[in-house]
Each structure stands twice: as C-alpha cells, then as structure tokens.
Specification:
single chain; 220 residues; TIM Barrel; 8 strands; 37% helix; globular
C-alpha cells in the first residue's frame, strides 16, 4: 500500500480536551473532512489505542485519513494513516519512522527555522507542523506566536509540506495562503463537531448536516 498523500487545505485536529474526539472525528469525516488527527494529551496509551481504533473504524468508509498524535506504535497497530510527534516526544523521528514503516505518514512539530531545516535534512518526516503562527487557546506551549513572516520563511526552507498551526480560523486563511502555506491545522474552530453550539443536548444540528459542512467549507 503506497504512503498516503497529505491532503491540501484543512488538517483537522480533534482534541480530547474539547469533548469526545472519536465522535467529533467521525462527524467531521462524514461531513467531508479528508484528514483528522486524534490528539489526547495525558491519556494512557491503552485509552489512546482504544479511541484510535474506534476512530479508524468509524471513518473507514469515508476516505478520511486518521493520524494519531504522540503514539506511532498505536497508529501502526490500529491501521491509522500515520502519526504526528513533537520535538521532545519519544520515540524521535528515526524510531517513529521505523515503527510506522514506509507506508504511513509521519509528521513532526517545528517552531523555528533550525528545526524546519533539520527535519528537511533528516528526510524522515512527510510534513512538518509550524507554529504557533498565532496565539492558541487550545494548546499549551512555551513558544510565542511566530507570525506569518516566520511561516513564509519556514515554507521556503522546507522540502516537505508545512502545516500552519496555532490560532488558525477562517478569517486568517488569506494571510496563511499569502505566506505560501497550503496546509493548516484547525482545533478550536471545530468546536461544533463536538456539539458545542445550538442544537439539541447531544450536539444535534450544530454537529451534523449542512451546518458542519458549511464550517468545513469555510476552513478548506
């Protein structure tokens, strides 16, 4: 099976701190999302594996790729499309690539040009996340917002696709595109997928159907 190609545009992250990530990810996939990353910081690996397996199963017929944050072994075990790791995560890129094999995506977080260039030189990651471009309200990070000029420099320096992350909303997409970005990660703006919004107590109309499809279209 050939390694998947990173879809252009929206890179959706379903974060366990916002609600049920499996349910949200399945809803996004049904609404037409092409890639969903499962992010469950602080969860035991067994719980991450259970959620990842459920998300892979729930999205199998949609064509949506599932990426698992922080856990390459889990991604390989459940048949996910790939894994994403941070600069300080164990295993590092070389060990993560060995676990994933040649047929799964590997993403790596970067925060400055030196990290971007190192990732390019190593040739292990299929893409890099770069940020935070703007201030983030959903991720705790010691890094200050990098801004669109730094993003543009990262895009120029990288040999692999760069996914802009941090405070990304629909109104900021023109600036990201102007900086050369063709991929952007969205977390907080996807709250309706968890049922945060008008509708019934389970999310109802806020999470399904035309409302969620319109939200994805605005972030594409």
């Amino acid at each position: 099976m050939p390694r998947p190609v990173l879809p252009a545009g929206l890179y959706a992250i379903v974060d366990a701190s916002l609600g049920d990530p499996v349910r949200a990810g399945a809803r996004l996939a049904r609404a037409g999302c092409h890639l969903v990353q499962l992010r469950a910081k602080g969860w035991p690996e067994a719980r991450v594996a259970e959620a990842a397996a459920a998300l892979v199963a729930a999205t199998r017929d949609t064509g949506c790729l599932v990426v698992v944050n922080d856990h390459p072994a889990v991604a390989a075990a459940v048949g996910a499309a790939g894994a994403h790791i941070g600069q300080d995560d164990a295993p590092g890129p070389r060990a993560a690539r060995a676990v994933l094999g040649p047929d799964r995506l590997l993403g790596l977080s970067t925060h400055d040009l030196a990290q971007v260039r190192r990732a390019s030189e190593e040739g292990l990651a299929d893409y890099v996340g770069f940020g935070p471009v703007f201030a983030s309200r959903t991720a705790k990070t010691a890094w200050r917002p990098r801004g669109v000029e730094a993003l543009a420099a990262a895009v120029r320096a990288s040999r692999v696709p760069v996914v802009a992350i941090g405070g990304v909303e629909a109104r900021r997409l023109p600036a990201l595109r102007a900086a050369g970005a063709r991929h952007w990660a969205v977390v907080g703006a996807l709250r309706p997928a968890y049922g945060h919004g008008p509708g019934d107590g389970e999310g109802g109309e806020a999470a399904d159907g035309p409302n969620l499809s319109r939200l994805l279209a605005s972030l594409a």
